[in-house]
Specification:
Length: 238
């Protein structure tokens, strides 16, 4: 059995188990909070318990979010940028023509008009990442919707502060974090499958886990890989 609480604005997943003591965990990358509680314990008791631990929870979250973060990008020559888990170096060129972006061996060749500032370069790169993601997502939906026997009505690609993806089963809408274009492709596939499975089971209960185990047996490995990768600098605060 599982449930959810919100304490001090922080969502907390509660799982009831055949255990004697309460276990409180804060997970990377963003500090998701999970409480494993004895099966007979009331939600009110658990709420009081977590209120007492709120300072500790916030401290852990600050730690995780501080340590795991990538250094901020400046969009300068020879700076590292990732696409699908592979590192590329930015190669900046100036030409009096509309901006152009091209992958060449280990380089992202970005041609802009003379005088283009780093903010504009960031915007061009962000748009390019969205395009890459959009292109990769379409075949994944075509592959997985028939396997799972579900259909999503909308898929949005957006920057999200605390999640890799989300699903609203009522509107059948799935949201995917733009940052996924920087991670290995199996991470995107895992998130798509995870969110589509929410159309079968909205919560993270045993039914959900059973679906994941059945459809994507290696999902835990990919989840852990995703949770270990560094986060974008500016995006991930509560
Ligand atoms: Zn989920």
């Amino acid at each position: 059995m599982s449930s959810q609480l919100t304490v001090g604005g922080i969502p907390i997943d509660v799982v009831f188990k055949d255990i004697k003591n309460v276990h409180l965990s804060v997970y990377p990358p963003v500090g998701r909070v999970r409480v494993a509680a004895p099966a007979h314990m009331s939600l009110d008791t658990i709420r009081l318990y977590t209120i007492g631990k709120l300072d500790w929870i916030k401290q852990q979250q600050r730690k995780l979010q501080g340590q795991e973060r990538e250094t901020p990008r400046e969009y300068i020559d020879l700076e590292s940028h990732y696409l699908w888990g592979t590192r590329y170096m930015l190669d900046l060129q100036e030409k009096d023509q509309p901006p152009q972006l091209e992958l060449k061996h280990k380089y992202i060749l970005l041609t802009t008009r003379p005088g283009t500032d780093s903010e504009k370069r960031a915007a061009i790169l962000a748009a390019w990442y969205r395009d890459q993601l959009r292109e990769a997502i379409t075949p994944l939906f075509s592959k997985w919707e028939p396997i799972l026997g579900v259909k999503a009505d909308h898929c949005f690609i957006q920057r999200m502060k605390t999640r890799w993806g989300s699903c609203n089963p009522h509107t059948r809408s799935i949201r995917v974090n733009t940052e996924l274009a920087k991670k290995p492709k199996q991470c995107l596939e895992y998130i798509i499958v995870h969110e589509l499975v929410h159309l079968l089971e909205p919560s993270h209960n045993q039914v959900f886990t059973a679906h994941m185990d059945r459809f994507m047996p290696g999902w835990r490995h990919t989840r852990d890989e995703l949770n270990q990768s560094p986060l974008a600098h500016e995006d991930w605060e509560y």
